């Protein structure tokens, strides 16, 4: 049988401006990558991010980005809160022990969200 052809990848998804996009999980909750966190325009004008929860051990929000987002939000009467947990999955139990505090951060962000 002839080999099955795979659909060509959608090249629009590979453009830099699309790689930085946060995915909207709920109207007040977005999921993004380190590229998203480095994109001031994504954090401000497009998504209106007020809180960032970073669980990556390898990445920390750049000071310049943080300052720009803080200034943008401040002009709109909003805060910008950044919380980082440097997680490394060594065993499942260690990861689970840190999740309640991370979930509390998300709940607090939702309660203070303008959306």
Total DSSP helices: 5
Query: Which CATH-level-2 architecture?
Result: Alpha-Beta Complex
Q: What is the helix fraction of residues, given as a range?
A: 40-55%
The shape is: globular
Q: What's the structural domain tally?
A: 1
Number of strands: 4
Order of secondary-structure elements: HEEHHEHEH
Query: What is the topology, as strand order, of the major beta sheet?
Result: 1-2
* Name of the CATH homologous superfamily: Protein tyrosine phosphatase superfamily
Q: What is the mean predicted local confidence, pLDDT?
A: 80
- Radius of gyration (CA) equals 17 Å
InterPro entries: Prot-tyrosine_phosphatase-like
How would you describe this protein?
Strand 3 (51-56), helix 4 and strand 4 (81-87) form a beta-alpha-beta unit. The protein is an alpha+beta fold. It has five helices and four strands; from the N terminus they run αββααβαβα.
């Amino acid at each position: 049988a002839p080999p099955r052809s795979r659909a060509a990848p959608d090249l629009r998804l590979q453009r830099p401006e699309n790689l930085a996009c946060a995915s909207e999980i709920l109207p007040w909750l977005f999921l993004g990558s380190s590229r998203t966190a480095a994109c001031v325009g994504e954090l401000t004008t497009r998504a209106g991010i007020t809180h960032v929860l970073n669980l990556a051990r390898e990445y920390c929000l750049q000071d310049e980005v943080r300052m720009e987002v803080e200034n943008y939000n401040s002009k709109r009467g909003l805060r910008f809160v950044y919380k980082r947990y440097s997680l490394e999955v060594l065993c499942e139990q260690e990861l689970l022990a840190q999740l309640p505090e991370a979930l509390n951060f998300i709940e607090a962000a939702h309660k203070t969200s303008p959306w």
